[in-house]
Design a protein that fits this description.
- By secondary structure, the protein is α+β, with helices and mostly antiparallel strands.
- Helices cover 32% and strands 25% of the residues.
- It has five helices and eleven strands.
- The strands form three sheets. The protein has a four-stranded antiparallel sheet.
- Strand 3 and strand 4 form a beta hairpin.
- The protein is globular, with a radius of gyration of 18 Å.
- 26% of the residues are buried.
- The N terminus is likely disordered.
């Protein structure tokens, strides 16, 4: 899609809704701003293993121009609404673009943590800071992530994530009232 093609899109095509597990279309000349929902960006290595690059939510900017990776996809983890940002409006989104870079660097730093226990805890803190909702017990991380998806992000096995989550729960650092729900306790 070229800039001129973006300019002739119908006005109702500039905002789109997607369902969970849908892929958001990517074009070299367009960015999307997330109005609601959560997405993750992914690529694959030479062996065909999926690599999660980041998790993005309301107010974040995503799109092909922010990555040089090929393949590169944006997958919806929840129902999502995004608004199209054509190139002539990118300068208006500079804060969101800088935030994207900063968050990607934070996540990269977490993945490089030597201790796997600390790596998981740092990732949970990152999720809580980004997506957490306050409750009487702590920050509710209501992002539907399997242990395999968490393992994929932080570079350990699914079995290790399960074992470490049980350990964090026994220590009272997290609560897990529902299957895909984590509360990072605030009294730590």
């Amino acid at each position: 899609m070229t800039i001129s093609t973006l300019a002739i899109l119908p006005s109702n095509a500039k905002s789109r809704d997607f369902c969970r597990r849908d892929l958001i279309p990517l074009w070299p000349e367009a960015l999307w701003k997330i109005e609601s929902g959560i997405v993750r960006t992914v690529t694959w290595n030479e062996e065909g293993n999926q690599i999660s690059l980041g998790y993005w939510g309301v107010g974040d900017v995503i799109g092909q121009p922010l990555s040089r990776l090929d393949p590169f996809q944006v997958e919806c983890l929840t129902p999502v609404t995004v608004s199209l940002i054509p190139p002539q409006q990118w300068s208006q989104e500079l804060d969101s673009i800088l935030s994207h870079i900063q968050q990607a660097q934070e996540l990269h730093s977490i993945v490089q943590t030597q201790s796997t226990d600390l790596r998981l805890l740092n990732f949970l803190n990152w999720l809580a800071k980004k997506f957490g909702n306050p409750t009487e017990f702590g920050l509710l991380i209501d992002v539907r992530l399997t242990h395999l998806e968490i393992a994929d992000v932080i570079g350990i096995t699914r079995v290790s994530v399960t074992r470490m989550m049980q350990k964090l729960e026994r220590k009272g650092i997290i609560l897990r009232p529902r299957r895909h729900c984590i509360i990072l306790k605030s009294n730590r």
